[in-house]
Amino acid sequence: MPMVTLSLMRRLRAAWLLTLCLATHVPADDRRPDLAPAGSLITAQIGEAPVIISAPHGGRVRIPGATERAKGVKVLDTNTAQLALLISQRLTERLGRRPSLVVAHFSRRDADANRAPEPGADDEAYASPAAKVCYDAYHAALRACVDESKATFGTRVLLVDVHGQARMPEAIVRGTRQGSSMAHVVAEHGHDVIDGPRSLFGLLAAKGYVVEPPLRSQAQEGEPLPETPRRERFFAGGWITERYGAARDDGVNAIQLEFGRMRVESLEKTARDAADCIAEFAFTYLGAQRPAAAAGPPPAEGEGRSMPDQDALQEPKKGSGT
C-alpha cells in the first residue's frame, strides 16, 4: 500500500475543512434574510465587530448555466475560503463579537468578484447572466457589511480581503493601493498603521512571517530609513480594496492580504496568527474593547479552538444560498 505523503494529507485535510465549511452555515441575520439568497453560492454575515473579512477567490463550485470567463486570471486561490472562515472563527473568540464575513464558493472560472464589471466581450468579472447573479450577490452582501459597519463604527472599520499568491511563496504580501485604501486610520494615526510595529504587517513580522513590502524598520545597514511605507510592487490591491476602501466617501479602511504557501502547509496556524494580529490591530487602532476573557495575551499554540464550532455554525436551511 503506497505511503500517504504529507502533501496529500494536507490536501485531504483542506478538502475536509472546506466540506465542513460548506456543510455548515453562518446563522442567518434576521435583519437581512436576503444577505445570501438561494443560488448565490456565498456565505455572508453582518457581525458586531469593526472588522470585515472577504474571500472572493477560494470557491470551487461551478455556477449552473454559466459561461466560463474568456479573459482574466481563473486560478483558484487554494484554501482561502477555509482560511477566511477560520480567521472569522478565531476573531469571534478574540474580539468577543463576530466579524462581518463574505466568502465566495463559486468558481473563479465563472465569476471573479475582485474585478470591476465591464459589460461586453472584454468583461473580466463574468461572461454570462448566471454568473452575474452570483457576482452581484457577493457585492450586495459586501456593500451591506460595509454600510452597516460604517453606520456603527464610523471610519474605524477594517476590511481584510483574503487572497493567495505564488509569486513570493514564503511571504504575505500587502495591498493598500499605496496606502489610499487605509486613508481613514492613516489620517488619524499616521503611516505607522501601515507598517509600524503595531500595524497588521508589523505584528505578522513579529510572529516570524516574511512580509512584502518589507517594513521600514527592516532597512538594510547603511540604507536611509524611509519616511513613508515602501511601495507595493506586486499586489497593490484589487477591485475590492478600490471599491470599498477609504479612498471613496462610502468606503472603510481596506487591506488586501496575499498569503503564500503557508495557507496550504500550515492552514490552521496561519489562520490563528492572522486573526490574532487583526484583533490586536482592532484593539490598537479601531477602538475595539478587549473582552474580559481575553484581557491577557492570546492563547499559546495548541490552546483554544481553531475549527468552526457547531454552536456558532448551524446546519443550513433550505434555500440558504451557501
Write the layout of secondary structure elements.
Elements: H1 6-23, E1 42-45, E2 51-55, H2 80-95, E3 100-104, H3 129-153, E4 158-164, E5 171-175, H4 183-189, H5 192-195, H6 200-206, E6 210-212, H7 239-244, E7 253-259, H8 262-265, H9 267-285
Parallel strand pairs: 2-3, 2-4, 4-7, 5-6
Antiparallel strand pairs: 1-3, 5-7
Helix pairs in contact: 2-9, 6-9
Question: CATH H level: which superfamily?
Answer: Zn-dependent exopeptidases
C-alpha-based Rg, rounded:
19 Å
For the record, the CATH architecture stands as 3-Layer(aba) Sandwich
- How many structural domains in the coordinates? 1
* Overall outline: globular
**Adjacency order of strands in the biggest sheet:** 1-3-2-4-7-5-6
N-to-C series of helices and strands: HEEHEHEEHHHEHEHH
Fraction of helical residues:
25-40%
What fraction of residues sit in β-strands?
5-15%
* CATH overall fold name: Aminopeptidase
- Helix count, per DSSP? 9
Low-confidence stretches: 22-28, 299-322
CATH class: Alpha Beta
Mean pLDDT: 85
